[in-house]
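User: Predict the complex.
Assistant: Input components as received:
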Amino acid sequence: MSAAAPLEVRHLEKRFPLGSAIRRAQVHAVDDVSFELRPGTVTALVGESGSGKSTVARLLARLYEPSAGSVLFDGGDAARLRRRRDVLRYRSQVQIIFQDPFASLNPVKTIHHHLERPLRIHDIVPASELEERIHDLLQTVGLVPPEEIATKYPHELSGGQRQRVAIARALAVEPKVVLADEPTSMLDVSIRIGILNLMLKLKEERGLAILYVTHDLGSARYVADDILVMYAGQIVERGPIEQVLADPLHPYTRLLLAAVHGERIDQKRGSAAAAVDPGEGCRFVSRCPLAVAVCSEVTPQLVEARPAQAARCHVTAPSTN
Amino acid sequence: MTAVVEVSESTRTRGTPLLELRQLAVEYGSLRAVDVVDLEIRTGEIVGLAGESGSGKSTLANAAMQILRPPARIVGGSVLFEGEDLVGKSNEELRRFRWRNVSMVFQSAMNALNPVMRVGDQFVDMMRAHERISKQRALVRAGELLELVGIDRRRIRAYPHELSGGMRQRVIISMALALGPELVIFDEPTTALDVVVQREILQQVDALKHDFGFAVLFITHDLSLLLEFADRIAIMYAGEVVETATAERLAANPQHPYTQGLMRSFPPLSGQRVRLTGIPGSPPDLRDPPSGCRFHPRCPECLPERGELYVRQTSERPLLRETEAGHRVACHLVEEGSR
């Protein structure tokens, strides 16, 4: 394992069956996805609903079994872990935070309980230090005074505070990687920045590798170093976020940017949702203003057309061979 | 009736107030969700209402539409539509008023369609509840309305599950326009949608507004959306309107510290990357609202060392005052003239 890449995703694939027993169709929710998460780096995974971005986070958290591909972490392939002990160990290193802080906490248990459980299950600190560690965690995520917060129930906290509890719970097991699946989209506008700032702080102070799944390009730019743009189950563009947003290669990235910049969109409508039994060819072809003949015949590969910036596009990032 | 949407010429003169909320107060039991609000929407205008969850913006819209359900009730003020007070009208009078004069598109409207009924039949039901029209004629009009929002007219035969979320939302918007209302209220119509779809729907609403001349009350928590899309914006906080101005003016010169905080809550897509602060704390619990200015516990300008001003901020409710033509702010600092 190289110190620079604690988590490396290679050709990850997830298909969900669909339809009747006679005509078996498959949704290609995640298709040939490769990237890496580095310590002290936030990587934004951006896409519209149905594009497969949450499925990627769930695959990395091992909530789904991948159909193919590998997740290299800590010298092994996480996609192939079978023994409970190994899975538990992996999960203590790679934690996920969900969108809905109302659904992810148990309403009849105190905050103390939520933080005590992972500390005990993963045997993080001796029982005598439990109390102190719980208070430290609450302090880290900005929930003060911790003594008071710990005794509360989820319904006594605001949405933003609940999301902070969820983050504290993820941090309890001292992970190296945190997968944040739209952690702010259900929160009020005025408190979203607080959660984003907390992510930045964790990246800087703890050197965490963070995957930030979102559909909001502005917040992605605010926290992330790198960006992955997903469309219909595939990564269509990848690179340093400032560079990609300043000068995107893929026509879909350009469309997304036009939408948030408030420019008129005259393109054909279409859906970014995962494809059912896709054939060969680019999945964006029906909406693409740049499409040429080859686009509907050959599936484009991610090609590094500029230093560190790659896109899946025959026109703007043609393959060299 | 020949046109798809009937336009009553007499009410289309620009500038006359179409809907006017005067000193409106709404309570849920003892909780006051809307606390003495004044708001005016003129013909052909897009008014944006921005606020966080629990600020009372949806309650305000429901009151304007007269669809509050118990325990919510209007405890004071009036809702004037073309000068006529809707508060206290009978259900039958209101039934005729809704859809025809004012219609509403809800946040989860895409789930408001009946899943076991073809889209076209749902148009027919709605139209025939309000006017004498044959089923054939109603279906033709349904098709025309769908085309208006960019959906193939043949889709009248589709069931809702055969349409995407964005398409269903567009179906609801075209339904809201079916009877040619003078005002359409949109309550967070695009929050559940993706950016690209969101943008397309806003473009459509804007284009339709130009063609049909209806006024729009657009409710959202996304201030950045309103800044480019609305003519005038009202900012709500904890049941009160704290600032109102034209979109240009608000963008250039927000005066209430809460509005300023909201502006600082959206990371920009270009320019320098700077750390933002947002607004500390969270919105108040309206069962026990803060004394004085309701924003004072979160206000960066509310400091004990300011003596008398601090006393007023924490004990006295600021009134909405005009600081310049069309720009009104409820803030002690502005009253003081210190900004």
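Chain B is about 30% helix and 20% strand.
Let me know if you want any component modeled separately.
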